[in-house]
Amino acid sequence: MILASQSPRRRQLLEELGYELEALPADIDEARREDEAPVALVGRLAEQKADASLAAARARGIADKDGLLVAADTIVWDDEGDVLGKPADAADAARMLRELSGKIHHVSTGCCALRLSEDLEELGRSAFVETTDVEFWPLSDAQIASYVATGEPMDKAGAYGIQGLGRLLVRGIRGDYFSVVGLPVSRLARELEALTDR
C-alpha cells in the first residue's frame, strides 16, 4: 500500500492490518478556503493528498503490489467552526489547551483510498470523513503547563495526542477512538474491502 502520510501513528495502524507500506507524503497547500466548513476542509485535504501522492508515485515509477493508496488528514475544531491546527510554539499549545479545557470539541479525519492498476491508473476511489466528539476535563494552568513541558503537543492538531499522555486530559469520547489518533481503521478497512471487491 502507498501511504500519503509520514505519520508514524497511521503507519503503525495500517501495518497492524497487515499492509506493507511505501510512504509517499503529499506536499499540498492546506489553507482553509473562505467559508469552508471543517468537515468539507478535511475531506478535501485527504483527496488532494491522495491525488498528489499518486502523481508522485507515477513520476517515480513506484507501483504497489496491493494496488492501493491511502491518504488522510485530521483536524480539531470547536462548535463555532474554528479549526485548531498544530501549535506554533509552547505558548500557542497552552492557549489551545485552555480553549479546550472543560469543553466538548470535535476531531474529524478525512480519508481517501484509491484502487490502482499495475500501471497506476485509478480504478476506484472511496472518500469519507469520520468525526468524533471529545470532552476534556477542566484543566488547571499547572496541568496545562506540565503537559506542554513534555513536548507531546507540539506536532499534534489541537495540541494533544490521545494515544499518549494527552489521554489524561480526556474525560470521554463519542465516536471512533482511532479517528482521533489519526485513522479510522475500522471504517477504512470496510471501504478498502468494498474497493477491492468492485
- Count all strands and give the number: 7
Question: Averaged pLDDT, please?
Answer: 95
Shape: elongated
For the largest beta-sheet, the strand count, sense and barrel status come to: 7 strands, mixed
What class would the helix/strand composition place it in? alpha/beta
Task: Give the DSSP E fraction (strand runs of 2 or more residues).
Answer: 15-25%
Which regions have little confidence, pLDDT < 50, spanning 5+ residues?
none
First CA to last CA: what distance? 18 Å
- DSSP helix fraction: 25-40%
Radius of gyration: 17 Å
Number of helices: 6
- Helix-strand sequence: EHEHEEHEEHEHH
Task: Give a description of the structure.
This protein has 198 residues and is α/β, with parallel strands linked by helices. Helices cover 35% and strands 25% of the residues. The protein contains six helices and seven strands; from the N terminus they run βαβαββαββαβαα. The chain has helices spanning 8-16, 38-60, 90-100, 141-149, 177-181, 185-197; strands at 2-3, 22-23, 68-77, 83-84, 104-116, 122-136, 170-174. Strands 1, 2, 3, 4, 5, 6 and 7 form a seven-stranded mixed beta sheet that branches. Strand 3 and strand 4 form a beta hairpin. Helix 3 crosses helix 4 (141-149). The model has no long low-confidence stretch (mean pLDDT 95).
How would you briefly describe this protein structure?
By secondary structure, the chain is of the alpha/beta class. 35% of the residues lie in helices and 25% in strands. The longest helix is centred in the first third of the chain and has 23 residues, at 38-60.
